[in-house]
Amino acid sequence: MSELKGRKIIVTGAAGSIGHATACVLAGKGADVMLVDINGEGLKQRRDTVAAFGTQVEICRADVSRSEDVQRYVAATRKAFGRIDGLFNNAGTEGKIASIEAYEEAEFDRLIAVNLRSIFLGLRHVIPVMLEQGGGAIVNTGSIASERGLAGACAYNATKHGILGLTRTAAADVAARGVRINTVMPGVIDTPLLEGMLETMFDGDVQLGKRTLGKVAPQERIGLPREVGEVVAFLLSDAASFVNGAAWAMDGGALCTIRH
């Protein structure tokens, strides 16, 4: 399991479940990893579990919606590792649930900044480094909401649709110059954030909530963060050398059919 041996990869949103699980997968396949998140304490806690795989792990606290912070994590990665071979452009948030006529403008703007502007800034500041060094690979985190509407989540949906557009455009911009850019689209994934939502939605019965949401997919279960990480690792590896501008759904088949 050394297909990423020696690769230098940035993971944003690394204090969260998907970011952390993916960083563990990448380190387990031999990559040195820079963990980035606005949650500095969470980063410190995650560093030890990722470093247990035996590769070099560094952390950088950053607000990914701010250009100066993105430039700082890029500079920190170059200083620590000398190059950037991969970026998992993953940080984001779900936002509030409300009908579009009641959705607060400030909350809409916040999600645009955290979910979409951050992806643009990651591309904007990492791509030049990859072009300078002769290549690299980037994976952006979208969602099945990149392909479908979701009542009550106008801001979230807008950002996730936008990520898909950014991915396709950026891939077209730089494909001939050795940089590949793809999107992963997780479905319902088992995270503490999901459990908190289910506790509210299902009167404290989280397991009932998981079973219920799992039925959205033909596989009749929700996904695991590590399952996302495995696909990200593939897309960042040379095994995916001809995969570019693609949107990979990891949803147990939810997008492939009409299911109640």
What shape does the CA trace take? Answer: globular
Radius of gyration: 18 Å
Indicate the structural class. Answer: alpha/beta
CATH homologous superfamily of the largest domain, by name? NAD(P)-binding Rossmann-like Domain
- The domain tally reads 2
Percentage of β-strand residues: 5-15%
Oligomer: single chain
CATH topology of the largest domain: Rossmann fold
**Name given to the CATH architecture of the largest domain:** 3-Layer(aba) Sandwich
End-to-end distance, in Å? 39 Å
The ordered H/E elements are EHEHEHEHEHEHHHE
- Note the main sheet: 7 strands, parallel
What would the average pLDDT be, to the nearest integer?
93
Can you give keywords for this protein?
260 residues, alpha/beta, 2 domains, 8 helices
Provide a descriptive summary of the structure in words:
With 260 residues, the protein is an alpha/beta fold. The protein has two domains: 214 residues, Rossmann fold (3-Layer(aba) Sandwich); 32 residues, no CATH class. It is 46% helix and 15% strand. It has eight helices and seven strands, in the order βαβαβαβαβαβαααβ. The longest helix is centred in the middle third of the chain and has 29 residues. The chain is globular, with a radius of gyration of 18 Å. The termini are far apart. 46% of the residues are buried. The model has no long low-confidence stretch (mean pLDDT 93).
